[in-house]
Structure prediction request, 347 residues.
Amino acid sequence: MARKTKAVAMVSGGLDSTLAVKMMVDQGIDVHGVMFVTGFCYADPRRPKKRTRTGKRPEQNEALRAGRQTETSITMEDISEEYLQDVVVNPKFGYGSAINPCIDCRIFMLKKAKKYADAIGAPFIITGEVLGQRPMTQHFKTLRLIEKESGLTKLILRPLSGKLLPPTLPEEEGWIDREKLQDISGRSRHKQMALAVELGIDDYPQPAGGCCFLTDQNYALRLKDLFKYRDSASLTLNDMILLKVGRHFRINENLKVIVGRDEAENNFLTNFLKGRWAFEAVDVSGPLTVAEGEVRDEDIPIIAAITARYSDGKNQPAVRVHYRDEKKVGEIEIEPIKNGTLDNWRL
Prediction:
């Protein structure tokens, strides 16, 4: 058994990070897990979470589950506000194929992990990264870049690919046994799943799922639209959350409309009405439509017609629609808008 020392592990609750923690605990390391909450990993309000490999409904927080399974304490740290401005809005190393600033994200989180490690006297960091698994951040040269930028050269131990990477400080110091590290690489999770059986890890989310919706192309289109028409300094986490919900239409440079797709989204949107307009059909079931930006008198019939289009009265000649904001309340009878017109505005 290696001489016991402390380490901080970045834990998402996925299979890779769970295995990395378990391997280090089994080598006698006093592991302190940390999960950073970015605000970009919320569950889709329209879709239940995927089940685990055993068929069970996953826990509300997978990192805490991983902590219990590996007998490791987990600290949750909300970094969402600074993450939005420092990483999402202004990434030094740019975006991936969508609007995912993966390199900046990794550097930012590792700096946070280093700060936590320094505070508790832990000399190195553990991650569940696998060489060659993710296209932006897990190739050899990028791993080295991220280590340098985060101030953690030789201080990041990646147990799943350890044998394929240069020795780190904890290996050189004899705190861990390099021969007990793995040589996993690539995108397949078959080796990790086999290792999970060996280590007694039998409850984990489906591998390779991911939770960051910055990698989603549809979300990226909406976020780019927001960057175009809003001052980036004014953007809030609520703005980011709203991009994930409903149907979105850009009416003009000062006005965007969000239409709930079902009852769950309608209920969700009610939490974001402050400073926005709400439109709802009166006599038939339909969506909650939220308008944000400058709503002029001539815009009200357009938003009402969109609301009518997605109501149960979409085939009727006219639908009554109620509208309101913090200062004004009204009602209008309007013909549902046609799809061809909608297509010009759809995001």
